[in-house]
């Protein structure tokens, strides 16, 4: 297969139907922008040149392209007067001859396989122009293919310009074309805007090629879902769901159990080993990596986390964190950025952790906030413990050694350190370091005033109960 000379991606459109401040090509599907998904399918074609036509939101689109495709050349279309003029601008900026692939930036589901087959069919036909087409259950909104004999296309008619009988045609233009560059240059200058949108349509070059005595061919794609375009939010959601199914299917083929694929959302760049079990209502995003034997969900949100073998994360929200081998998280745990849970540690219900390490086998089981702390091995942080890391201006560190027992409802006022094997008494406010092996008791001593209820709450149910129990005034 000879190399493509040029790929042109059209991404200048105003995205009017999205009703968004953001260009539709920058909206996300599976953790990648719409255009990034498309470019991922193009990369293996190794075209010599890639030009992206930008216009609406051009600074944002160009800045994004610089990050994801630094070799792409951006051509600016100031006036959005159609796909034909956008393509003409890109061609004017290019010198070489050969074959050009033109696509719309808003079709993120195309795969490399389909594009490669399209290029091969075009080359086998030795045709000067080919259009990738699809049969859609609901073709409304798309350009319709008017066929001649033997696979030749006579023209493409846009929905807005189509007659009722033309609208009945269910073969549509996917917006993916291959052209001989010389031929395209010669016809594109003849486009006219005498249509309902007063635009120069790229689709009209097919009619012009046909009139010039040459033939353009329709090549039907096998899977219409790949060719769906995003023009509005409903189509964005539809494409996202198809991408979700595709990603989940691949993970399941790789040996991942996904109990309910329809409620499990996994980003394209997530890596999951075999024998991971994912329960319903879970999303795994960013560059998360999940090792074999881990159990995730139900209803967990995992963003850019590394989860080791045998770890369990139940009904929890975790971001930018590391969860060690056989560690247990949840239910209802919030792991914020920089939480590191060593192997066999446990973090339980209503615990929030930020920028802290929980050492091997240590437990923060209930109702705690742990911020900016280093906790050693096999220590236990009692229920309701708060790491008081912020004085209103600065954040401070807390250090906790190995085999420490922090009593329930302790306030650890940072900066503070608790030595190996030390204890704190329940309800203590600890603002001084505790040496190894000591117990810190930092609370007022309890006083019992006998008979107080009988004297001060005479006639109450409490007084009656106390009396029955033998209390005296
Ligand atoms: C286009 C095709 C239609 C096809 C459909 C496939 C035309 C006239 N129609 O319609 O036959 O079925 O794609 O998805 O081509 N763009 C520019 N500059 C412009 C206008 C558009 O760069 O002046 C870009 C858009 O950003 C978009 C792409 O071209 O990425 C297609 O434009 P869009 O407005 O989405 O065309 P459709 O109405 O979907
Ligand atoms: Ca479109």
UniProtKB/TrEMBL annotation:
Residues 1-233 are annotated as: Pyrophosphorylase. One of its GO terms (molecular function) is glucosamine-1-phosphate N-acetyltransferase activity. UDP-N-acetyl-alpha-D-glucosamine binds at residues 10-13, 24, 77, 82-83, 143, 158, 173, 231, 336, 354, 369, 380. Its cofactor is Mg(2+). One of its GO terms (biological process) is regulation of cell shape. Keywords: Acyltransferase, Cell shape, Cell wall biogenesis/degradation, Cytoplasm, Magnesium, Metal-binding, Multifunctional enzyme, Nucleotidyltransferase, Peptidoglycan synthesis, Repeat, Transferase. InterPro entries: Bifunctional_GlmU, GlmU-like, GlmU_C_LbH, Hexapep, MobA-like_NTP_Trfase, Nucleotide-diphossugar_trans, Trimer_LpxA-like_sf. Residues 234-254 are annotated as: Linker. Residues 255-473 are annotated as: N-acetyltransferase. GO terms for cellular component: cytoplasm; membrane. Mg(2+) binds at residues 106, 231. Its main location: cytoplasm. Residues 7-132 form the MobA-like NTP transferase domain. In the C-terminal section; belongs to the transferase hexapeptide repeat family. Homotrimer. This is Bifunctional protein GlmU. It comes from Candidatus Nanopelagicus abundans. The gene is glmU.
